[in-house]
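# step 3/5: fold
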Amino acid sequence: MVRSSATRDDRLDGVFGALADRTRRRLVARLARSPATISELAEPFDMSLPAVSKHIRVLERARLVVRTVDGRTHTCALAAERLREVTTWLDTYRAFWDEVLASLAAYAEDRR
């Protein structure tokens, strides 16, 4: 059971590490709309195609992006399963904070 937890933690580390960069978060946001080529992804950024491709490789290692190659055209798509795993993890803490804030609100009401 501990091994499973470590594996999940490793996956979460990879996702959070990949999303720690603003450019990669913007690439994920763009891919959430639809798949895109590396050239299309590079358009809004002031960086070279190899630099964008490097960011995509980080997202691929975190399994947030899947790249398909057709000749010289590299098309990327968002792999939402990893994001669902992160959402599940965050939901645990959302419930905790909802409870803490509800308790704080009740305490403040009682003090009035």
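# step 4/5: annotate
The radius of gyration is 19 Å.
# step 5/5: archive (pending)
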